[in-house]
Fold:
Amino acid sequence: GLSCFSLWYVAGVRRSRLPCPAPVSDVSLWNILKKNIGKDLSKVAMPVTLNEPLNALQLLCEELEYSELLDDAARSDDKFERMLLVATFAVSGYCSTYHRAGQKPFNPILGETYEHIRDNKNLRFVAEQVSHHPPISACHCTGEGFEYWRDVRFKNKFWGKSMEVFPVGSVHVKLKGCEYEWKKVTSCVHNIVAGTRWVEHYGDMLISSEDVICKISFSKSGYWSSKHGEISGAVMNAQGEVVHKLHGKWFEGVFCETAGHTRCLWRAESMPPDFEQYYGFSKFAIELNELTNLDRKYLPHTDTRHRPDQRLLELGDVDSAEAEKQRVEQIQRDHKRLRDENNIDYHPRFFKKVLVGASERWQYTGNYWQARKDPGFQEFLQDITPLW
Ligand code: PIF
Structure:
């Protein structure tokens, strides 16, 4: 029968705490960086103590924490209101980064996957690491009346004190037959080597759809400025006339102003107790890497929740986590060498590369949820050598 655990799971109850607080890390990032000046940092294996127990695929999922904004957009009959909610969703995706500048996510292994289901929201998310060098992650998600997809590759620029991250690739949302597309703004991690690390996002975001556009500016200000985190923007019709104005802070909330009247569209959830000791994770982030008995039954062996080094870090066993990270990375190198020696091309399982103009996109094949059905992934993934 069902264990107590799975009954909880069925009822949608998830853990509200990580098993262990973040270990105290004394690793000197400066020692690593000075040895690698001018190098592409994505080609340097970093110590596990720089990481948080989540990876880049799970961070893509985390940007959907406030997906009900898209559900609401899909329910609205007003195209300007729909754009307003899509734009608010786009801003809300930055919220989790506020308390998370202290660590970096795990870099997924090529072929690693991550799924996330929220029955109460009808949300189904799937992601796959489709390229190792350069690291590229692709994801696809459906909710109540919307579809969402994105692929991303991060370009970094290390400036000595700070690091700028330029996400390459677009975010797409489709609802009520209309497609919305935008590019994410530049992110910057300050005080990389000394002092308190903090994150800032800046630049202009343009969300386009058929005949409504929205422009949002993320201000560059400084940590102590009252303008820190400020965004402002406008929803415009095809003639460029402003219909609604937007303002707020990406870590706090978004407000809409229409003809002198102001209303709140979104507010960030409050943080769980002791979040500082627990990697700055929100309630949503805490849940992302939970592995229930039911998950064990259904998840493919490629799912991040099965990755041993990340699990060991979550459990606070730093030494074993480091040893496992190196072992897993070596397996990945061996697989690559075997492919190279035998002239075998690598093809991701659930996404395929398509060319749109001059740019590459990774399109979901639809295979994942199909393969998950009885008899599960065994048959579908049997040709994949275990990743770890
Ligand atoms: C390893 O990844 P790490 C390296 O890629 C290594 O080259 C590879 O060996 P190989 C290993 O198999 C990898 O595990 C390095 C790098 C990874 C990303 C991209 O995890 C996402 O050891 C970045 O890390 C997201 O990290 C940033 O790249 C979002 O994970 C904000 O470049 C970085 C991060 C820079 C450090 C900044 C620290 C800030 C706290 O032999 O196969 O090449």
